Amino acid sequence: MQTASPIEQWQSCRQERVNRQIVSVVFSGEAIAMAEDRSLTLALQQQNQNSKR
After folding, report:
1. Exposure string (b/e) for 3-40, b if CB count within 10 Å is 16 or more?
2. Residue 2 in contact with residue 9, Cβ under 8 Å?
3. What does the alpha-carbon distance between residue 24 and residue 18 come to, in Å, rounded to a whole number?
4. Cα(44)–Cα(34) distance, rounded to whole angstroms?
5. Rounded distance between C-alpha atoms, residue 3 and residue 53, angstroms
6. Tens of pLDDT along 14-40?
7. Where residue 8 falls among pLDDT bands split at 50, 70, 90?
8. Rounded Cα–Cα distance for residues 10 and 4 (Å)
9. How far apart are the first and last CA of the chain?
10. Is 53's pLDDT higher than 70?
11. 35 neighbors 27 (Cβ within 8 angstroms)
12. What pTM did the predictor assign?
């Protein structure tokens, strides 16, 4: 196993940080989408209840 040069180590470390940022952004994006879905579903249910009356 050959040792990576400092530049290669820095690049892989940097890539790891970027990947982690992307993952956290995707996760928060999914959480927001889920929350929006839930509020949309609730709003639709309320509309349906209102229209039944």
Report:
1. eeeeeeeeeeeeeeeeeeeeeeeeeeeeeeeeeeeeee
2. no
3. 10
4. 15
5. 73
6. 999 988 888 888 888 888 888 899 888
7. very high
8. 10
9. 74
10. no
11. no
12. 0.43
Please state the φ and ψ torsions of residue 39, each to the nearest 5 degrees.
Answer: -70, -35
In the numeric block, which tokens belong to residue 29?
A: 């994006």
> HEC profile for the chain?
CCCCCHHHHHHHHHHHHHHHHHHHHHHHHHHHHHHHHHHHHHHHHHHHHHHHC
pLDDT of residue 16: 92
**Single-letter amino acid, residue 44:** L
Amino acid at 32: I
